[in-house]
Amino acid sequence: MKLHFIQRVPFETLGICLGAQLLAEAIGGKVRPNCYREIGWFPVELTEAAKQSPAFRGFPERFVPFHWHRDTFELPDRAMRTASSKGCRNQAFVYEDHVAGLQFHLEMDGAGIGRMLKNSKDGLVQGPYVQKPEGMAGRTELVSASKTILYTLLDAMERRCSETEHTMFASGKGQIYRTIGD
């Protein structure tokens, strides 16, 4: 039932962190604890499959997004891994060219990171992929680079909407936008 819905959904779909895990599960994957918590700014590398995906065209081959997760997803059949890191093999995927999942956070800004740190101090246990709070805050150059990559992805999804009859929903600064292809 879930798989049928995702296959027939008439719009571009992007899931971030828990959203990516839910999408992966909806299309037949499994969500499970990752070997490591991944909290902070850590490098991600694109796979060869990402270079073939219109959604990831224009991404740098290696970039440093923000992470805040303990769980990960197993890739379902027909989903393509598009990014991985040392701390988490499945960082991103595409499915059927209109569904994308990102385990990392391109949308995060300094205020959001500050709120997460303030509200989750007890969750910051030591680990190889858990940065100290002072290493996470104030990284404006990484926030800026992440936003550029996010907008590249959203632009690619919007282009696909205009090439097909898909609808796109995207969130920007707390507002929801709906774009319909011509």
TrEMBL record:
Cited CDD domains: GATase1_1 (cd01741)
UniProt xrefs under SUPFAM superfamilies: Class I glutamine amidotransferase-like
Matching Pfam families: GATase
Cellular component terms per the entry's GO annotation: cytosol
Domain Glutamine amidotransferase positions: 13-109
Domain of life: Bacteria
Protein name per its UniProtKB record: Glutamine amidotransferase domain-containing protein
Organism: Paenibacillus elgii
